[in-house]
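Support request from a user on the community tier.

User writes: "When I paste my structure tokens into the form, the page sometimes reloads and wipes my input. The last time it worked, I copied everything first. Here is what I submitted, just in case something in the input itself triggers the reload:"
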């Protein structure tokens, strides 16, 4: 299946050029001409990669990236102006996979797109699907379904569920989960873990009448067995 690429670029000439070239290369392409629309499309659709201009009307590219990364690990290549060093630094800090400076050659852009698609998102991990009973978590597609019914999770909820499934039968303390899901440098309340466990239970345990995540008093959380 052709990789799907979202182009977020307000200069219609450049957007059109990219669309033609990428379509010619066999990619499926959608376009957005402002940051807000681009972000909404990125969060709603299933894209394999985003080409994101930094200078955009409304929401600029870095802000789009910041908001996207709260929810998604989709690979992002920033399109930056020639001397915008700060944009490149902040963009990579904020989780852009790569950037390319305008004006660029299409060959260089295509090479970077291929590299970014190969590498996947910044936090890409185990590729094969994880299952528990009728629950299927697919890391490659970033989807979760129960008995074929899709469950819409945020980026952190997904990451927390994936971590618990990978560690099945091994109790995960709040500290372990904070480190794995939120990162070493997380500064905030450890009860954020409890809050997100509650979200997962509201989205999975309650509607599907299962006991997926067990609380181990005084220790943490665990998913037991294979759900059979
Ligand atoms: Ca622009």
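"...and here is what came back when it finally went through:"
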């Amino acid at each position: 299946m052709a990789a799907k690429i979202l182009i977020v670029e307000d200069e219609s000439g450049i957007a059109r050029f990219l669309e033609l070239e990428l379509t010619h290369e066999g990619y499926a392409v959608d376009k957005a001409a402002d940051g807000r629309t681009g972000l909404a499309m990125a969060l709603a659709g299933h894209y394999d990669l985003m080409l994101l201009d930094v200078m955009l009307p409304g929401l600029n590219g870095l802000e789009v990236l910041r908001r996207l990364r709260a929810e998604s690990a989709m690979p992002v290549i920033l399109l930056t102006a020639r001397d915008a060093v700060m944009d490149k630094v902040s963009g990579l800090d904020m989780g852009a996979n790569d950037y390319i400076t305008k004006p660029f050659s299409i060959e260089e852009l295509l090479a970077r797109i291929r590299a970014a698609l190969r590498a996947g998102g910044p936090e890409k991990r185990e590729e094969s699907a994880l299952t528990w009973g009728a629950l299927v978590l697919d890391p490659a597609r970033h989807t979760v379904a129960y008995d074929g019914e899709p469950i819409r999770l945020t980026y952190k909820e997904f990451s927390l569920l994936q971590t618990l499934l990978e560690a099945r039968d091994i109790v995960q303390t709040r500290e372990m989960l904070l480190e794995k899901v939120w990162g070493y440098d997380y500064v905030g309340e450890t009860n954020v873990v409890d809050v997100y466990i509650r979200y997962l239970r509201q989205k999975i345990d309650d509607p599907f009448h299962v006991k997926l995540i067990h609380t181990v008093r005084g220790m943490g959380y665990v998913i037991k067995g294979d759900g059979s």
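Agent notes: The reload is a front-end session timeout and is unrelated to the input. Residues 4-119 form a domain with the Rossmann fold fold (CATH 3.40.50.2300). The mean pLDDT is 88. Escalated to web team.
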